[in-house]
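Re: your question about Ribosomal protein S14

S., sorry for the slow reply, the queue was backed up all week. Below is exactly what I fed in.
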Amino acid sequence: MSMQFPKIPKKVNIAGFVNTRVLRDDKKRQVFAKYEVQRQALRYAVRNTSLPARTRVQAQLELAESHSYTRSTTIKNRCVASGTARSIFRDFKLNRYQFRLQALAGELPGVRKASW
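Result:
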């Protein structure tokens, strides 16, 4: 009987991750960035009518067979504090409720409550 050691998680770029949805979204962003240039080249080959039909079809098949994480449409903005995907402020990567809590606590630099 062999002993199995637990897998050590890979180093993650953004601190404050709470749940697996945020980790999965970060992984999607990394994979998309890695394959973006390759996908753009294939998309160009598919649309270029001056290329032979066989080359265009091969590029189209390669695009269709690529992993879904390489597509930009799978990326969703998520709150890094709570993991929710609704009402996200892109500059802070927080949803409106977490933004309000952290702003009132003074944890966001340059953010003050408005009063007039």
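The chain has two domains: 17-75, 77-108. Helices lie at 20-47, 53-65, 96-104.

Happy to talk it through on Thursday.
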